[in-house]
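Go through this chain for my students:
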Amino acid sequence: MCERATVVGSVDVGALVRTRARYPGAIAEAAGRRARRELLGESGRLMIVAADHPARGSLGVGGAPFAMANRQDLLERLCLALSRPGVDGVLASADVLEDLLLLGALDGKVVMGSMNRGGLAGAVFEMDDRFTGYRPEDIERLGFDAGKLLLRVDYDDPGSLRTLHSAARVVDAMAERGLPVFVEPFLTCRDGPGPARNDLSAEAVTRSIAIASGLGGTSAYTWLKVPVTENPDDMARVMETSTLPAVLLGGDIGGDQDAAYEKWRGALQLPTVQGLVVGRALLYPPDGDVAGAVDTAVGLL
């Protein structure tokens, strides 16, 4: 089980609910007055905390299948992470970002909207990953800073072609608005019933990067969000596949936090890698020390 985090303050869920129920327009107002910043700060590096997993029905961390199901706990962990020096922003779905807006936690932060959440974990339609989250026009209207899409490709599932086509059109729409879009590519397969499995071999990650880099009519606003390969020593040649700027994703690292830091540390030295986008590994560390986990990750940059 995940330890409970030590937080800077308790989130009043009742107040959030009352605002949502009585004055839904407060969300748009909070977005409108939010202090914005450039995507890349003075360091030229990015440290983004991710919390878009619940919208896909993916609530587990390690051995705790519903660790992310408690919204108050998740928001408190996010607010603590966002308060730490060196944390640039957050990636999440609309419900989470709106709670953070109402809490005033997004001023001066990079806000990245999660765009496709249709491929629910374990569903028969998991590879038909339609865009059921933020649209490009939503991200523009709310004054957010970027979007993120997941691109899982299963060569044996025709749903992947629909995902590829819709992802390419979103890349075009974001570029038309001058908005960065972070594409998270995987080659994926199923070994039977249950969630799809991402192939993290050097060959598969190389091929997924090549596919993602060529989406749409321009790659000018495209970033890559890539995993560290099974063998971290393969990352140097894998990242030679594209000149697009990239960030590393974290994923569920189990209980070996130190091993994850070492994997990230090496890959962060590569010329195309510009930062980290990490969620569960920092929000739900095995020892419950969110601040410590975040500070260590920031130190790797």
